[in-house]
Backbone:
């Protein structure tokens, strides 16, 4: 799990971790350059020791683009991430989560990806203000999907994602950043609040969640 606010040394270490994971998952330097629209030299400078004259601080936006791609590729592995998710979330919730075919859709009714792990599909749909289908494209009501996961921790992350999307959809994404900063989150960590990928997840402060939901109303 990431710290809420990363100092430059931690940002460099985390960037290297993300880059290594992408390489291991088949996303090399050229692809990373294309994803961030930055040159290979610039990407190298992001990973240079923060005290070096060659160092450049990776923008939070670029780091999030790379983390999003690494997360997408990570979840395609299926077995290992699911095992790790249960080990942190609690194995008791595993009994109700069935390995079926689930598809996440966004508010624009476009598919955001198919997976057999329900929490990941719920995350994708909530990040895009959408809904979930399962089996033969049957609508899976979100209340039923949440009940099937049956995890209070997951429900808390779900609340954050839904409130964040409402603010973004209303053109008030800056409010998410303002609330996060007010509660001690740094710019390089905000994008990972409520992530289901536990290695880079940033925990939720109850007061921050209350403030976010109040703003979203």
Residues:
């Amino acid at each position: 799990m990431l710290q809420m606010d990363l100092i430059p040394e931690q940002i460099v270490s985390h960037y290297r971790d993300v880059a290594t994971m992408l390489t291991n998952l088949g996303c090399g330097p050229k692809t990373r350059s294309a994803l961030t629209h930055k040159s290979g030299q610039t990407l190298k400078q992001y990973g240079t020791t923060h005290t070096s004259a060659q160092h450049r601080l990776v923008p939070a936006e670029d780091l999030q683009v790379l983390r999003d791609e690494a997360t997408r590729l990570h979840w395609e592995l299926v077995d290992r991430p699911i095992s790790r998710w249960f080990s942190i979330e609690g194995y008791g919730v595993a009994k109700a989560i069935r390995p079926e075919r689930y598809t996440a859709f966004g508010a624009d009714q476009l598919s955001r990806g198919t997976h057999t792990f329900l929490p990941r599909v719920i995350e994708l749909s909530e990040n895009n203000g959408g809904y979930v289908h399962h089996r033969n494209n049957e609508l899976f009501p979100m209340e039923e999907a949440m009940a099937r996961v049956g995890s209070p921790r997951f429900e808390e992350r779900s609340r954050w994602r839904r409130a964040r999307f409402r603010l973004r959809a209303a053109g008030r994404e800056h409010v998410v950043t303002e609330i996060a900063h007010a509660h001690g989150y740094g710019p390089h960590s905000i994008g990972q609040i409520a992530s289901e990928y536990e290695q880079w997840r940033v925990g939720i402060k109850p007061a921050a969640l209350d403030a976010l939901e109040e703003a979203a109303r």
In short: Residues 101 and 135 are 5 Å apart (CA to CA). The chain is about 55% helix and 5% strand. Strands lie at 102-105, 111-115, 131-134, 138-140.
